[in-house]
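Example S7 (structure tokens).
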């Protein structure tokens, strides 16, 4: 995918080229979590199946993840653990992981607020979080519709705009496990 685009503009009779970075958002749903323990929702751990799946996804789809400037994760244990496994197996530095409390949400509106308030210094961002918020935001802002973003699956959204507050025109691609309706 092309990550730069060119704007030509004539100023004082000269053709000026401006290279603007497009914004990319990868939505990664946390891996399969366990309901086996009497814990608060925030504290639920990953299942072994979930650990194995996110490890595989992180290695197989490393090219999707390893360009990221930052990984913002929900404070839920399952999301943090997913982000750590992702960083380790996609060769990302752990200091790129940041906990964002407002990503512990099941509302697409909250995800959209986080997205639109991102600093423009970040061009390639990963959110690790939850459904139904991720499925809803995908269906709201992209032309492709899905029933569900499965655990340990991702959607990569590339916006044509170079400011997070202005993003609207986009293309989306998905991990193999996502079914488009």
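Recovered sequence:
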């Amino acid at each position: 995918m092309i990550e730069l685009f060119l704007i030509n503009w004539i100023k004082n009779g000269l053709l000026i080229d401006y290279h603007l970075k497009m914004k990319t958002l990868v939505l990664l749903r946390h891996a399969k979590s366990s309901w086996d323990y009497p814990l608060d929702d925030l504290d639920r751990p990953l299942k072994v199946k979930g650990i194995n799946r996110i490890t595989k996804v992180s290695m197989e789809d490393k090219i999707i993840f390893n360009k990221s400037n930052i990984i913002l994760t929900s404070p839920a244990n399952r999301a943090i653990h997913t982000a750590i496994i992702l960083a380790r197996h996609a060769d990302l530095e752990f200091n790129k992981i940041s906990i964002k409390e407002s990503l512990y949400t099941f509302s697409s509106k909250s995800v959209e607020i986080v997205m639109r308030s991102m600093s423009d210094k970040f061009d390639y961002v990963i959110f690790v979080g939850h459904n139904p918020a991720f499925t809803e935001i995908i269906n709201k802002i992209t032309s492709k519709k899905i029933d569900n973003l499965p655990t340990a699956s991702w959607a990569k959204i590339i916006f044509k705009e170079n400011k997070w507050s202005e993003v609207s025109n986009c293309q989306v691609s998905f991990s193999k496990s996502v079914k488009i309706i």
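Notes on this example. Residues 22-174 form a domain with the Rossmann fold fold (CATH 3.40.50.1240).
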